Amino acid sequence: MTDDDVELEARLAEQESFDPPASFVDQANVTDEAIYDEFSENWPECWTRAADLLSWDSEYSTVLDDSDEPFYEWFADGDLNAAYNCVDRHVEDGNKNRVAIKWEGEHGNTRTYTYQDLYREVNEFAATLQELGVKENDVVTMYMPMIPELPIAMLACARIGAPHSVVFAGFSADALATRMNSADSEYLITADGYYRRGDALDHFQKAQEGLDNVEHDVAASVVVDRLGDDGFGHELSETQYDWDSLMDAHRGDRVAPVERNAEDMLFLMYTSGTTGEPKGVKHTTGGYLAYTAWTAQSVLDLEPGDTYWCSADIGWITGHSYIVYGPLALGTTTVMYEGTPDYPERDRLWDIIEKYAVDVFYTAPTAIRAFMKWGTEYPDSHDLSSLRLLGTVGEPINPRAWKWYYTHIGHESCPIVDTWWQTETGGMMVTTLPGIGTMKPGSAGPPSPGIDATIVDTAGEDVDAGRAGYLTVNKPWPGMLRTLYQNDERFIDEYWEEYSDPDTDEWVYFPEDGAKIDDDGYMTILGRVDDVLNVSGHRLGTMEIESAIVGVNGVAEAAVVGGDHDLKGEAVYAYVITEDGYAEDEDLRESIIKGVEDGIGPIARPEQVIFTEELPKTRSGKIMRRLLEEIANGEELGDTTTLRNPEIVDEIEAKVSGD
Ligand code: WTA
């Protein structure tokens, strides 16, 4: 670091709030603070402002139908098509030559799709899907890396009204099979492989293993040839087709976009919850698309001429909402990158930003922490002056990382939006609006216009400023999940039971996050209060990891908790009791790690596997996870007097600290 840097850091370390630069405010999409009042005074009609960003085939007559709470319906009698909104209308509006997707492969090869190109490919793939037998409302699973065929396939599904279910490519074969089984999905779109840190990965092998465990017939799979000569030479079976050959047969085909009711399902996205079974979050067409377009416009400040880059993977909700649907609905250029940020060098992201003159960049705190560790020489060697706005999502960002991002990437001239939201919320919920709010590093900000969120204690009463409580949302919003796929009961249990009052018919959504609020109404998110971990911004259920570990030969019982981790935010700590006759050795440790990788994926890999004779349990037999977390974090241990076996705690502690 130079002396200037040291001086700058010292100055910023003291600063607790930052105002958006005038140059940003002058051009921002939303600059009038009155928007908050306008939305709350005209709620729910205010949401026509979001719906007006879309083109409707037939207009809706009611904004919100709350006759069957909490099964809310938005714009319910309107019809529209999401692919038409993300593609066709931009072509019709004279923007056929504007770039829709800028893609860069890990090796630096690039592909550019104008809106006309995207229109052609989406139509041709829609025709392909129809030929394969896909009908409206059939769930099509995608298990694909970050290649343009993924958004093309998603939009082709949307065009014919077939909901997609995208499974993150880093998930295991088992995870794929579980999701296909749960959704009864008979179609799979996948790829032969992709590149990671220079190596070609065999993705088809995993897809094949997943397919072998699907319980129903799979009508057809489509395989994109990503690797070419680097491929692994797998033979395709009778129901497996090569993407290019199918597309060649449909060159020039056009498929009329089907009119979907606003409440028809657009997609399913599986996410982790408290139990071992992932939850199929159902999002519908009108409300979701209106909400993502609106938040992309008001929070990410996107405009049609922008080049925008969200470095998430489309396999997660962030990629669905803010690589594909939100930006494309607005007619923006969205950038996609296949690989990792440190290949071939640690300046890859800054190289991409410079090369494409990216205007708005959206990433995760875990990435920012890695950039900080690597050092400023990487961003410093690039011209990042095209940037206008920066965003973060996925986990809390600590003030030091925020300030680093602000200074070394934004050069003090870009506001930062720290956006809190979830798979279930569809889009951003708590964040400053970049042209209005003062930013406070570490605090996401106030609830967005039209979002009625509060922080309450266990009795549901508002907590005082500065006190920790639970985040709740008291009114519905258009982007919200509609239910858990084929499981209305679990939908109510998971999200509504805790704080709703059936006597007064008051319905309160509980996202399972802890938070606190300051005197200005800014919310600081403290993290999950359920058994969900946030590892590098990826959401993982402790129960899912535990069941993968217990499935390993030789394991009797396991408890998984999150421990603090400098880069990942949280890391997986697995406490394991072996079965009699099994040695607590390196072989077993490796099988456990492999069990987790096979059951979920490498992202869930335990940081530490700690063998123990017993787990700390209360007299009623409940594992005291709090203690296991404290041990993982090397913290002073809290009360152990309610334990049945307090002596085990010291033993475990000694093992973790290596004493
Ligand atoms: C966490 C990702 C603090 C939170 C969009 C939430 C955050 C979970 C933030 C959802 C943020 C997301 N500050 N925590 N800005 N954004 N989270 O479903 O715990 O993968 O419940 O959606 O991430 O993760 P999910």
UniProtKB/TrEMBL annotation:
Domain Acetyl-coenzyme A synthetase N-terminal intervals: 33-86
Residue stretches spanning the membrane: none
SUPFAM superfamilies linked: Acetyl-CoA synthetase-like (SSF56801)
Residue ranges of domain AMP-dependent synthetase/ligase in the record: 93-477
Matches recorded under InterPro entries: Ac_CoA_lig, ACAS_N, AMP-bd_C, AMP-bd_C_sf, AMP-binding_CS, AMP-dep_synth/lig_dom, ANL_N_sf
One Pfam family, short name: AMP-binding
Assigned EC number: 6.2.1.1
GO biological process: acetyl-CoA biosynthetic process from acetate; carbon fixation by 3-hydroxypropionate cycle
A GO molecular-function annotation: acetate-CoA ligase activity
PROSITE patterns referenced in this protein's UniProt entry, alphabetically: AMP_BINDING
Keyword line: ATP-binding, Ligase, Nucleotide-binding
Residue span, AMP-binding enzyme C-terminal domain: 544-622
Enzyme class, UniProt record, top EC level: ligase
Stated family: Belongs to the ATP-dependent AMP-binding enzyme family.
PANTHER family: ACETYL-COENZYME A SYNTHETASE, ACETYL-COENZYME A SYNTHETASE 1
Entry protein name: Acetate--CoA ligase
Organism: Haloquadratum walsbyi (strain DSM 16790 / HBSQ001)
Gene: acs1
